[in-house]
Structure prediction request, 73 residues.
Amino acid sequence: LQRAIAHTGGELLESVSLFDQYMGEGVPAGQRSLAFRLTYRRSDRTLTDEDINPVHQKIRDMLEEKFQVSLRS
Prediction:
């Protein structure tokens, strides 16, 4: 997942890191909850929501389509 996120994020996505995994109450059997930190950056200017939102949505769409993940936020 991490490589797919990094590839889809393109040049604005500086880094991707998995910071939490959970299996247990509230998560269906055979599944796990994963949380990733995504850092977006450009060296020449400050990014705006208008810059980041389309890239972030592209990543979300890819995860749902390619890996059939269920996104909570």
